[in-house]
Design brief:
35% of the residues lie in helices and 23% in strands. It is α/β, with parallel strands linked by helices. The chain has a single domain, classed as 3-Layer(aba) Sandwich (UDP-N-acetylmuramoyl-L-alanine:D-glutamate ligase). The chain has a nine-stranded mixed β-sheet with strand order 5-4-1-8-9-10-11-12-13, sandwiched between helices. A four-stranded mixed β-sheet has the order 3-2-6-7. The chain is globular.
C-alpha cells in the first residue's frame, strides 16, 4: 500500500493574462501554492494517495474545483465545505518578460476557517497520514489559535513516525508584520523533517544575506533543507551539514513564473518519498519547474 500525503492549503479561482486581456480574454483555472504541489505530486505518485486538506464552499466554483482535483487524482475526502464562505480569487498579470503581479480577493475565503470546527476536517484527521505538507501561506491564513494547535500537534505526529515537510513561502501582504511571520514560522522549521525554503523569501523576511540565511538554517533542528535560489544551485543541509547542490540548467525563455517553487517542491518531494537521494530529487524538482515556467498559469495541461 502506498503512502498518504496530506497537503494543507487553499485553492483559489485563478484569472491570468496580460493587461490587454482584461476583462474578456483572461485565462481561468484553479491554483494555490499547496494545491499546485498536490496536483503535481498526484501526477508523479500514482501508487500513493495525495490528499488536499482545505475548505471550499457550497457553490458552482467549489463544485468545479472539487471536480478538477478529483480528475487529477487528488483525494478530496479531507476537503470540507463551509456553510457560508467561498473560495478566494486572484488575478495574475504578466508582462512581456514573464514577470508577474498579483491581485487577491481572499480575506473572507473559506480556507481561512480551516480546523476551526466550521465544517471540514480536524487536525486529528491527519494522524494516519504518512506525510504532512504545508506552506507559509497556509500558516498565514490560519487563525492564530489554529497555528498554535498545529505546533502542538506536530511533535506527537512525528514521534509516531509521520514526516512533516514545510515551505516558508513568505508573502508580506498576508502578515501584519515581518516579525509576526518570522515568529510563526520559526517553530515549524525546527519541526520540519524536510524544509524547502526560498533564499529570496528568507532574505526578504529577515533582511539577511544569502550566506546568513544558510547559517540560520544550519541552526534549526530540521532533518534536511533545500535552500532554493532560482537557477543558482541550491544550498543543501542534511543533519546541519551544509553543501552545494547540483548545477542546474537555465531556461532561456520564461512565459510565466507562477508555480515555479510549487512545482519544484512537488518534484523534489515525489522523488525523495520514492527513495531518491537529495541531489537527484533537486534535479527532478528543477526539471518540472522549468517546464512549468514555459507555460502560462500554475498548472501544466495534462500530457
Amino acid at each position: 500500500m502506498g503512502k498518504t500525503i496530506a497537503c494543507i492549503g487553499e485553492a483559489m479561482l485563478e484569472l491570468s493574462g496580460t493587461p490587454a486581456d482584461i476583462p474578456h480574454n483572461l485565462t481561468t483555472g484553479f491554483a494555490g501554492d499547496v494545491m499546485n504541489t498536490a496536483v503535481y505530486m498526484s501526477r508523479a505518485m500514482a501508487e500513493d494517495n495525495v490528499a488536499f486538506v482545505t475548505l471550499v464552499g457550497h457553490d458552482a466554483v467549489s463544485d468545479a474545483l472539487l471536480s478538477f482535483l478529483q480528475a487529477e487524482g487528488v483525494d478530496t475526502a479531507l476537503t470540507g465545505r463551509h456553510a457560508t464562505r467561498l473560495p478566494g480569487i486572484y488575478l495574475i498579470e504578466n508582462d512581456e518578460t514573464g514577470e508577474r503581479s498579483f491581485r487577491y480577493w481572499r480575506d473572507s475565503s473559506a480556507p481561512r476557517r480551516l480546523f476551526t470546527g466550521e465544517g471540514g476536517p480536524a487536525l486529528t484527521d491527519l494522524t494516519t497520514a504518512d506525510v504532512i505538507y504545508l506552506s507559509g501561506i497556509t500558516l498565514a491564513i490560519m487563525a492564530p489559535e489554529v497555528r498554535q494547535a498545529l505546533c502542538d500537534f506536530l511533535p506527537g505526529y512525528r514521534a509516531r513516525g509521520g514526516t512533516f515537510a514545510f515551505d516558508g513561502n513568505y508573502r508580506a501582504r498576508l502578515w501584519p508584520s515581518a516579525a509576526a511571520a518570522a515568529e510563526a514560522m520559526a517553530p515549524l522549521w525546527d519541526l520540519a523533517d524536510i524544509a524547502l525554503p526560498s533564499v529570496e523569501d528568507e532574505m526578504d523576511l529577515y533582511g539577511e544575506t544569502a550566506d546568513a540565511v544558510a547559517q540560520r538554517f544550519a541552526g534549526y533542528d530540521c532533518g534536511e533543507a533545500v535552500l532554493k535560489h532560482g537557477a543558482t544551485p541550491p544550498i543543501l543541509l542534511e543533519n546541519r551539514v551544509q553543501r552545494a547542490g547540483p548545477a542546474l540548467n537555465r531556461v532561456d525563455t520564461v512565459v510565466d513564473a507562477t508555480g515555479a517553487g510549487d512545482s519544484f517542491n512537488a518534484g523534489y518531494l515525489a522523488a525523495r518519498l520514492s527513495g531518491a537521494k537529495m541531489d537527484a530529487a533537486v534535479l527532478a524538482g528543477h526539471e518540472l519547474a522549468c517546464r512549468v515556467i514555459g507555460h502560462r498559469g500554475a498548472i501544466l495541461p495534462r500530457a
